[in-house]
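Before the break, one more example. Copy the sequence into your notebook; we will annotate it together after we see the structure.
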Amino acid sequence: MVRSWFSDKVEKRLSEIEGKGLFALTDIAKGELLVVKGGHLFDRNKRDQLSLTLGPSEIQIEDDLFIGPVTPEEREGSMMHLNHSCEPNVGIRGQICFHAMRDIARGEELTFDYATGDADDWQMKCACGSFLCRGTVTGKDWQITGL
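Here is what the structure looks like once it is written out:
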């Protein structure tokens, strides 16, 4: 079965941001590796086809290349449950490794700015609650200076 890898310092549980989230079980130091996205590699056409049954479950790793599950049975094991925040505490290094961007306290939800890992043409209303909240998040926000 396809799975993402998780540090033993994190766990999935219900989130106030949305659905399930990923939370720190203990204090986490800046720079620590927390998640490695697992899945199959596929192109945009396959991604669009899969989204009809799996919903959003992949991440973009190149212009026309994505990684994620390809069956409903693989979906939960592949999902990272990193909810979006405009003021994230987790960032991506390379294409599939997610590291702490700052020290993270035990119990804190781990969040990722979706716009920094996906250059596709999409948008979503944001409800992260951060003072820095952009209101609407798009796949082009990575072009914003200082993001």
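Helices lie at 44-54, 72-78. The first helix runs from residue 44 to 54. Try to locate both features in your own notes.
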